[in-house]
Amino acid sequence: MDQTQWRLYEAYRSPYDPCPPLEPKRFIVPPNQYIVFQPENLPQCTPMQALQLGTLWPALYSPYDHGDWRG
């Protein structure tokens, strides 16, 4: 997939807000949001690889990155 799955947004901050601005928030867009229908002959993983990735189709794989994530 060409699109990155991670997105950022900044919360609205009023010019009169006395609090310091919040850090930008990160969220993930699942890959199934980009595939509106299942095309024919979509490549499939091997059974062992599908068990490791959690999906039969590599196009729907979304890694879970839990590093320095706050959301």
TrEMBL record:
Which protein are we looking at? Spore coat protein CotJA
Q: Which organism is it from?
A: Ferroacidibacillus organovorans
Q: Which Pfam families match?
A: CotJA
Report the domain of life of the source organism.
Bacteria
